[in-house]
Amino acid sequence: MGAEEEPGSVARTSLLTEDDLHYFNEGTHTGLYRVLGAHLSSESETPGTHFAVWAPNAEAVSVVGDFNGWDGNAHPLSSRGGSGIWEGFIPGVQEGAVYKYDIRSRHGGYRVQKADPFGFRHEEPPRTASVVWDLDYEWGDGDWMEERGARNHHEAPVSVYEVHLGSWRRDPGDPERFLSYREIAPLLVKHLKDTGFTHVEFLPVMEHPFFGSWGYQTTGYFAPTSRQGSPQDFMYLVDQLHQHGYGVILDWVPSHFPSDEHGLGYFDGTHLFEHEDPRKGFHPDWESLIFNYGRNEVRSFLFSSALFWLDQYHVDGIRVDAVASMLYLDYSREEGDWIPNEYGGRENLEAIDFLRRFNEEVYGQFPDVMTAAEESTAWPMVSRPTYLGGLGFGTKWDMGWMHDTLEYFKRDPVYRAHHHNQLTFRGVYAFNENFMLPLSHDEVVHGKGSLIGRMPGDDWQRRANLRLLLAYQTLQPGKKLLFMGGEVGQWREWDHDGSVDWHLLEEPGHSAILKTVQSLNHLYTSEPALHRSDFDPAGFQWIDPNDGSNSVLSFLRRDPSSEGGGVLVAVLNLTPIPRENYRIGVPRAGRWDEVLNTDARELGGSGLGNLGGVESVPIPSHGHFHSLVVTLPPLAALVFRVPKESEG
Question: What is the pLDDT of residue 562?
């Protein structure tokens, strides 16, 4: 409590009920952001701010800030029984006040000033203090919120545009200046309209001290970075996206956190949020600290963080980063550098339980959102319900598809015949999980090159290969994700200190790539056969997966819910050699319209094709009684469908 208050007044002014304390210590509280941290008093109370922080091993905690000259003796807090929480009310502290917690530990004379773990806003880095802030905002996305369950459903089209907000666009007049959330809103809405994506996924927006971490070294789990504006400014961005029909997914990092002094590490002079033993508490890859998933209060903290963004910011999904690093105790560790679980295995049982509970809480409270796991191993049932023994995620990133596909596409086409199985192998496991097919930020950094930059051939062939890659992603079963820059065929690797090379769109070859993305997204969202069966094996059938000698793939996509129609034929020629009179079996007689040709002139191609469609002939092929004889353009994807008026 504040120094000005009378003894015993903490109970009168506390926001924390006994139930809050119980559920927090039990590890089941999912709304701690309502009672911990800094909260302005209501209009009926004395103006000021309630403060509450968890520091069970402190002998004293006080609030310091610009309102008391950073004097650690001016505003001490009081301990709330055996809960480990320190709390108090400071009159006169209003919105915008800058503050930290001054913590004196029981151990070794340790004393430190910490940012608020539940702070709604923090100073713009490199400053590290928290800011008292209210989250009031008048939302205008009611229509979206009512219908978003249908937009996020497994049978809905989900084509995600992955964005790093700090480098998507910069101020053209001052490339060093970040555009604010409000400045970005109309630009991003227009771009999504121009490209046809259904959702946008932001790399972590949570406050982080080192910009070069892209947000993956989080310190503020309840605050958007102040580099680009206030919490309400970020709410405005989400609100505008929703009002124009676009879903918002946030990247979230419960796997590790940085050791910066103002952050969560060694919070009260003990390893409070992280494991004490570095074999469990220190991550060698990222030189960061690992949450102690077995500690009840840490679980409450993380559950509350995830639910906070769904509740207060109306986001439509959470993508969990680095799930594999959480599941395995020996992840990136040498023999002897990790501790087996109680059964002698390498599975992190506490993290497994945490992830299952996370998904149960998210879907239990927000059944109309989605969760996604970045999980790079063969861990089973990541996207299966917890009651069946799964982890409970809505989708899992298909990292194997991403790596195999990019390895294949970087090869000179003359060698692709020998690596045909890199594209067909996915058929073995494509429906083991609810997969999302990512072409993500991780694939265009650290010397890997941009998507178009790793394609073989001259500039024309590189663009054609990129169009073909994007078409292959669209036509395969699974939800889709593309990182910014890929849609314009950016030559350079992603640079977080720069911007997407938007000037490339002034060149016809690159504007044609953008038009290709638009065409692919339109096809994906408008054809039920391409999205309703993303997770259903009944929606996919090979025509011929074995024509490696010609490097041609052909398959069917179906809408299982459609009677008599809803069938697409996809054919991909993965070499620069045009192929005349190529025969493929089809499941019905009649005309088949050519509804996509990535070699079309308007998409930057040579214009070779099938004059808008082909009539079937009664010659059996590939197990079907009828077949099409088609021309396959170089490095191109074709899609055929029965005219809609003929379906039924």
Answer: 77
Is 443 a residue of the active site?
no
- Report the C-alpha gap between 644 and 642 in whole angstroms: 6
Tell me whether strands 220-224 and 479-483 are parallel, antiparallel or unpaired: unpaired
- Please name each of the domains of the chain with its CATH number: 9-131 (2.60.40.10), 537-646 (2.60.40.1180)
In terms of DSSP bridges, do strands 282-283 and 206-207 run parallel, antiparallel, or are they unpaired? unpaired
Residue 405's alpha-carbon distances to 425, 442, 473, in angstroms, are: 10, 14, 9
Q: Which residues of the chain have pLDDT under 70?
A: 1-13, 43-44, 563-565, 645-648
Question: What's phi and psi for 410, nearest 5 deg?
Answer: -80, -10
* Cα–Cα distance, 247 to 240 (Å, whole number): 10
Catalytic residue among 233, 374, 443, 534: 374
Active site includes 321? Answer: yes
Give the per-residue pLDDT at 176.
87
List phi, psi (to 5°) of 565.
Answer: -140, -155
Query: How many other C-beta atoms are found inside a 10 Å radius of the C-beta of residue 334?
Result: 8
Closest by Cα among 251, 253, 300 to 36: 300
pTM of the prediction? Answer: 0.95
Instruction: Give residue-wise pLDDT tens across range 517-551.
Output: 999 999 999 999 999 999 999 999 999 999 999 99
Tell me the DSSP string of 398-430.
-HHHHHHHHHHHTS-HHHHGGGTHHHHGGGGTT
Phi, psi of 57 (to 5 degrees): -105, 20
pLDDT of residue 645: 63
Element (H, E) at 364: helix 349-365
Q: Which helix (H) or strand (E) holds 307?
A: helix 296-312
Output the pLDDT for position 10.
Answer: 37
SS (H, E, C) 342-357: CCCCCECHHHHHHHHH
- Give me the catalytic one of 321, 361, 487, 594: 321
Token reading at 431 = 């429906």
